[in-house]
Amino acid sequence: MIMENITTMSGFLLMGFSDTRELQILHALLFLMMYLLALAGNIIIITITTMDQRLQSPMYYFLKHLSLLDFSFISVTVPQSIDNSLMDDGYISHGQCILQVFFFTSLAWAEVIILTVMSYDRYAAICFPLHYEVIMDPSKCKRAVIAVWINGSISGILHTAATFSITFCRAKIIHHFFCDVPQLRKLSCSSDYLGVVGVDTFMAMMAFICFTSIVLSYIHIFSTVLRIPSTEGRSKAFSTCLPHLFVVSFFFSTGIFEFLKPNSDSPTFFDLMISIFYTVMPPTLNPIIYSLRNEAMKEAFRKLLLGGEFTKKKTFLSYY
Which stretch is the leader sequence (predicted)? Predict the structure, then answer.
């Protein structure tokens, strides 16, 4: 396709990882394996946290919505990328690209917010165990989850509106496997970046607030845990906090690295690999991380595999 046709076509051309057919097939197979693993893991967590009476505390309620977010998050980019690689066609329509940007940014920011909420839940459970039921009562948990989804949608609208308000006058080639916002903005020759800068500044401030809240929560958590006299008590507290801390560290570190690294017109293979670490890996690994040291989760999973009966829920949420 000549450059003029690429410039004037209505959609965009996703370059993906390679022009070599064999590598495209390999990429599609690897992505398919990771996608199926992510779907299976997150669906299992959603199922057992819904059906098992023992998994009705706020921690598991938020974990269920985190799995729902992960399920949706990986479905925004990976299936399209698999299809493009198998079909050897990187074309994505303008409308598909808008939807991809909206859902990707909405779900990414919703995940940031729910990870912040989950850190506050752990802070309340460990630092204020006697008041935990009052602090995290069912109505507050429901409102927190509603706020997560609403704020994620608002951020998605802001990002999408700002990105597609600029004029694309360069060749509509995106050096990525999905409609990446920084790559899209590089296709513009417009000097009107006021909306883009405003949205980026606002979202950066929100991200900083969320990150600071998580850090402060864990400072209080660790100072409290280290004062617990019994080894068993410390081990139980750490077993509920360390998976969340690992997920938060992984998600934020890769996201921050992607945000701070300089953008090039032709990203390297290393740049694309880094993008996998914040788009594909978290939804795939989160179910495994949260299940490794959690005996209640493993027992519920065994019941699911063996066809055992779950205790019916009597209340929306129960507590420790």
Answer: none
